[in-house]
Amino acid sequence: MRAPLLILSLAFFAGVAVGTGFASEAGEVGALLAVAVVAAGVAVATKRTGVIVAIAAAGLFALGLARAGEGPPALGPVTAFADREVTVEGVVESDPVSRGSDQEVRVAVERVSVGAESLGTGGDVLLRAGPGVRVVYGDRLRALVSLRAVPPQDGSDFEDYLAERGIAATGFAREVIVLEHDAASPVRAALSEARAELDTGLRRALDEPLSGLAQGIVTGRRGAVSASLREDLNAAGLSHLVVISGSNVTILATLVVAASAWIVGRRRAIWLAIGVVGLYTVFVGADAPVVRAAIMGTLLLLAGASGRRGAAEPAIALAAALMVAIEPGTIDDLSFQLSFAATAALAAIAEPARLRLMAVSGLDVAERTLGSRLQSAFLETAIVTAAAVAATLPLIALHFGRISLVSLPANLLVVPLFPLIFLGSLLTALGGAIDASLGEWLGWLLAWLPLSWFVELAQAAAALPFASAEIDGFGLGHALALYVALVGVAIWLRRGGAELRREGKPAAEPSSGWLGALEFPTAMMALGLLLAANVVVWWAVAADGRDTFDTHVLDVGQGDATVAIAPGGETLLVDGGADGQRLLGQLAAALPLGQREIDVVVATHPQADHIAGLFAVLDRYRVGTLLVSPIHDAADLGRQLRAAAELRGVAVRTASAGMLLALGAEVLVDVLAPAPNIQAGADLNAGGVVLRLRHEAVSLLLTADIGVVEELALARGPWDLRASALKVGHHGSATSTSDLLVRRVGAGVSVISVGEGNSFGHPVAGVLERLSGSVVLRTDLDGRVRLRSDGERLRFSTSR
After folding, report:
1. Does one domain contain both 64 and 81?
2. Within-domain flag for 59
3. Cα angle at 516 between 514 and 520, to 5 degrees?
């Protein structure tokens, strides 16, 4: 029964694929003839039932063609309002996704207003809102939006991706008002809130980029992964591990079976694992890619549990055929293609290869020693990884025109530890959701070391000069040729296994992999040793004998962010740049490991390139005081930041010239500007907070974005402007850093915070010329800059 089911399922699947991919009738007819030839071959090979199977296969192929010809579903009448500024009212139906400091949500539109006219309509839109806006699943909102229609087909890759998910239009939302909470399904709202709690637990427990990576692994929130780490994961061929995929689901099921089999028995434990997979699928959102991953992973689990060779392939083929029957557009979804290819390879190639290699090598699978079990587990990991990489490589080359050359070795070094990465991240998330301190403790003990290994390996692999390569001219024909070769390999492996059995060689037991190793009690000793090593490494890394005053000018792109750390650990953050995600990564690199408190945050003036990233800081760190400019509330963003701080119990104070702050016992902070009587209508840059940090004989001057007029006022004032280092004002623009200021400060080091390739031309040549008497460091060229004071001298280092 298994062979006919496999053939029939693949025939329908092929029909949908051909109907979706070929525009001409000649292509469809040619493909139909090709399937008929294959079916005829099957008929000859299988003799009695072959004719019936061949006829049925041809019919199902034709049915697949017809199903594919029905076209994509309509995207909704809201597209009629595209390219116009309208007021949209609707309900948020997705978890918010972080895009830098912005938020992105899917909204089910209910009404659209154009001028005084309000019309009921429908359709889903993808809206992006600025850093001061925070909405959650189930909120009914109203926003001013300029909608852009998504073409239903033949658009860009991203537009096709949105259309396949039913998104009718996109837009940037302004003047967002939340009209009502809990306007959607209460069950989904509760699940969304629970996911948010886990994400919050991970954010509190782990530094970036470990936190974002853990969120991607546990809750599927891939948007939490920093852009730089995403690039490294793609280059290293490891990005598939940071989505809810069949591999994640299989690992979760394996852990459940390993934990419960000794209590309820292996068979019942497998059914328990299937139930947990179902609950996990619902928990993380149950969107189409997650459901597909759950189906594929569950089928592999069931096939392995049955102990029947060849049981998985027909089940996987049937599942794929049903998925595309329900929604033909699924076949164009890259996540489906990758999931199907990888899962099929695990069943058709990895398992036969494992059985054959173990039989040939003579590995004694009946010997229940830790060494034997671990040998088997590592052997299976290598084979599974190689099969999955080989099966997905043609698709990656076809869609992206680039392949990772280090994917196989990188996966071999990460995949064996992935169960620990997943389990440690999951337990840290649960602990953090219960109590922040518990989450931090679990994060240090269970998650930090394996996640750090994952990140460091991805970054090291991506940094290799041969990490990836572009493949020009790689087309569908090349991909099909490679898959034909893989099918040939699968057939050869299957026949080889049959020959071994006929020769009477012992067959390896059905795959258990890491499950078999974990079920063996001595393996718990190995896990205990790993935890002990984790504690020792953490202790060594976290040890801080520093007695210096460190100031880091952070590399946040075209913006400003500076963090100062006193010898006693007290911390001052001045501005946060425009991208909260990037800021968190920079802070994690600058602050002592595991630090979750910032004593004082200064918002020099309410412009996005200085304070948009501070919303992420309020979410991640315990902030003592927010110090703002007298004109802070003159901008919407400033008022939103104040509200966010007050909501979290942060004290908000207004800065004015003459104020003195103590950062611990050894560092003093002088506020030199603005004047307390500055007018609310003044230019936002003119109202910037200027600070002078003093550590015994060493001092630093931070001038925000003030212009030459404000610099002149400083020079005429009673202030001592001399400084060891100058944080150059306004990113090195022509409106700041006058010759008078440079001479009065007399800094030996000048640091410019500026974005690489910025459109403003910063820093300008005139500023660089005026600073020529000092060492000039730039974040666009030098990365993060560290200024270290021992109280007598100032030294600097850079991250590049």
Report:
1. no
2. yes
3. 115
The whole domain housing 109 covers 77-184
**pLDDT tens-digit map of 137-164:** 899 999 999 888 876 555 566 666 676 6
Sign, CA dihedral 64-65-70-72, equals: positive
**Alpha helices per DSSP H over 148-245:** 157-164, 186-205, 210-219, 227-236
Please report where in the chains the tokens 């009209």 appear, as a residue.
Answer: 179
CA distance 356 to 95: 46
Residue 600 and residue 718 in one domain: yes
Q: Give me the pLDDT at residue 378, please.
A: 67
579 contacts 600 by C-beta, under 8 angstroms: no
Phi/psi at 658 (5° precision): 100, -10
588, 446: one domain:
no
Q: Do residues 435 and 494 share a domain?
A: yes
Structure tokens at 406: 């280090």
As separate numbers, helices (DSSP H) first and strands (DSSP E) second, the chain gives 29, 25
Q: In the block, which residue shows the tokens 């911390």?
A: 571
Same domain assignment for residues 168 and 210: no
Measured CA distances, 55 to 28, 210, 413 (Å): 17, 55, 48
Q: What's the chain's length in residues?
A: 800
- The parts of the chain modelled with pLDDT lower than 50 are 1, 22-30, 33-34, 37, 44, 506-525
Q: Please, which contacts does 220-224 make with residues 24 or more away whose CB atoms are closer than 8 Å?
A: 220/244, 220/284, 220/285, 220/290, 221/95, 221/97, 221/195, 223/97, 223/98, 223/99, 223/104, 224/98, 224/199, 224/581
Q: Which two tokens stand for residue 248?
A: 């994640």
For residue 432 the two structure tokens come to 């953090």
Residue 261 tokens, joined: 């089999």
Q: How far apart are CA 635 and CA 687, in angstroms?
A: 12
d(CA 494, CA 310): 9
3-state helix, strand, coil in the chain (%, to 5): 55, 15, 30
Q: What is the pLDDT of residue 781?
A: 95
Digit-coded pLDDT (tens) for 568-607:
999 999 999 999 989 998 998 899 877 889 999 999 999 9
Is residue 533 included in any domain, yes or no? Answer: no
Distance separating alpha carbons of residues 796 and 786, to the nearest angstrom? 5
Residue type at 429 in one-letter notation: A
Runs of H (alpha helix) within 401-505: 407-414, 418-434, 436-442, 448-463, 476-502
pLDDT recorded at residue 499: 57
Residues 357 and 377 in one domain: yes
Look at residue 496 in the predicted model and tell me its pLDDT.
60
Q: Are residues 577 and 691 in the same domain?
A: yes
Q: How many domains is the chain partitioned into structurally?
A: 4
Question: Domain containing 166 — which CATH number?
Answer: 2.40.50.140
Distance CA 552, CA 591 (A): 9
DSSP state of 445: I
Closest CA to 410 of 466, 449, 336, 358: 466
Which tokens is 135 given?
Answer: 């909405």
- Amino acid 497: pLDDT: 57
Letter string b/e over residues 389-401, b meaning 16 or more CB atoms within 10 A of that residue's CB: bbbbbbbbbbebe
In this structure, the strands spanning 562-565 and 571-574 are antiparallel
pTM: 0.78
CB-based contacts of 542, cutoff 8 Å, min separation 6: 592, 593, 594
CB environment 651-688: b (16+ within 10 A), e (fewer): ebeebbbebebebbebbebbbbbbeeebeeebbbbbbb
> In sequence order, what are the residues at sequence separation of 6 or more whose Cβ sits closer than 8 angstroms to the Cβ of residue 237?
389, 404, 406, 407, 408, 410, 411
